[in-house]
Amino acid sequence: MKLDLDIVRCNFPALTGDWIFFDNAGGSQTVKQVGNHIVDYLNNTNVQLGASYEISQLAESKVINAQNKWAEAINAQSVNELVFGSSSTALLQNLSRSMVQTFKPGDEVIVTNTDHEANFGPWIEMEKYGIDVKLWEVNKDNLELELDDLEKLMTDKTKLVAFTHASNILGTINRIKDITTFIHERGALSCVDGVAYAPHRAIDVQLWDVDFYVFSMYKVYGPHYSVLYGKKEILDKLPGINHFFIDSKDTPYKLQPGNVNYELTVGCKGVLDYLDMVYNHHYLDTSATLFTRYSRVFELFADYEEKLTKPLIDFLDGKKGVKIIGENSAEKEIRVPTISFTIAGKKSSEIPPLVDPYNIGIRWGDFYARRLIDDLGLSSNDGIVRVSMVHYNTMEEVEKLIDVLDNVI
Q: Among the four 95, 156, 242, 293, which has the fewest Cβ within 10 Å?
């Protein structure tokens, strides 16, 4: 099955403009279905939920429907396992604020130096409460997280290991099931940052047996909003951080101060409408579940993204003075199409301004993975240049980028 790019691109209004978007890991373009849901909600049902009158009940049904659909899409057992919030950073900070109340001085949390600060900073804050935070460092030879290194850090006091599913710098896909099983065998919980993974592959929280998993809707073709999954039996035991009168059994509301943003939650349904449309265009089985549809569509995306990635990887790998930071393979099992590189003798900050005049958007910096950039000795180089592709990019766009880079590097 081959992805029909025409049917894909006509659902992204921004793609009708003059720009080529290769900064997608920072925020993808939004499908038109998202905007349609948001406008409809604001124009027709913009009221407070929970009232007896008809419009309030209709508004509530839209919010609940969107939440239920996303619970099914990521294979959660219950909609009560999804906590919605403004960003992955905010959701993890709230989770940390709650969890630290269940820990005691001397307990341990492990973080990695490959993570975005969203899944690092909140856990470091626990040191103020006497929690021992340890660092699981990437192997600098192969730029992978090794279980042997994790084993040296874990003790019977380890309560949580936080790690990334795919680094937003390296692009490498970590073996989430193996890592989570390893952590559980040693009596700890797992908290996974899936922000860089979710735009490219289906999420299956039950298959991976993760305890917590966070991703950002605005990087998965949706509104500027985010979702934190947590196993219900764990969330139910956590202290609430909402108003004092919110029942501690009221999951997930007790972890959503101020409640969800209604119109953005409803807008998230538009992403699933888009995925459903792509499925119906490519497959005949109309009886498939939402989760099955979601998974099959992302298989199409992954196959296509691998083809997009290969020519750019091959070009960079063969270009004198260019160093890819991460795997030099385009294989979909190994990486997502987020590619970082440096150029000998040039600051990373020099390159994107040379590409801008061609109406191609790429970027330089540390991308909030500053600890990794520091540890790899790349800070003085202004970090890395990053090209991040998704399934709506075209081979022609990749070829144009290669031509431009060939001239400016």
A: 156
Distance in angstroms (rounded) separating the CA atoms of residues 409 and 397:
18
Residues 6+ apart with CB under 8 A from 183: 150, 154, 161, 189, 190
Q: Please give the C-alpha separations between residue 272 and each of 6, 28, 54, 64, 73, in angstroms, as whole numbers.
A: 18, 15, 26, 14, 8
40-98 pLDDT, tens digit each: 999 999 999 999 999 999 999 999 999 999 999 999 999 999 999 999 999 999 999 99
CA distance linking residue 158 with residue 151, whole number of Å: 11
Determine the residue type at 55.
I
CATH code of the domain occupying 34-270: 3.40.640.10
Distance between CA atoms of residues 190 and 168, nearest Å = 19
**String of DSSP letters for 93-107:** HHHHHHHGGG--TT-
Helix residue ranges, H only, 74-141: 88-99, 121-124
Return the domain boundaries, the chain: 5-30+286-408, 34-270
- Whether 365 contacts 323, CB under 8 Å: no
The helices-and-strands tally (H runs, E runs) of the chain is: 14, 13
Q: How far apart are CA 324 and CA 341, in angstroms?
A: 4
Q: Are 272 and 294 in contact (CB under 8 A)?
A: yes
Q: Which long-range contacts (CB under 8 A, 24 or more apart) does 341-345 make?
A: 341/316, 341/384, 341/385, 342/378, 342/381, 342/384, 342/385, 343/385, 343/409, 345/321
Strands 158-164 and 108-112: parallel
Our CA dihedral for 49, 54, 59, 64, rounded to 10 degrees, sits at: 80
Residue 230 bridge partners (DSSP): 212
Q: What is the CA radius of gyration of the chain?
A: 21
Q: How far apart are CA 387 and CA 373, in angstroms?
A: 16
pTM of the model as a whole:
0.97
Cβ neighbors of 237 (< 8 A, separation 6 or more) are 102
Alpha-carbon distance 15 to 397, whole Å? Answer: 12
Residue 93 burial (CB count, 10 A): 18
Give the tens place of pLDDT for each residue, 15-39.
Answer: 999 999 999 999 999 999 999 999 9
Q: Are strands 132-136 and 189-193 parallel, antiparallel or unpaired?
A: unpaired
Q: Does the domain at residues 5-30+286-408 carry the CATH identifier 3.90.1150.10? A: yes
Phi, psi of 190 (to 5 degrees): -115, 140
Output the six-digit token pair for 84. Answer: 């919605």
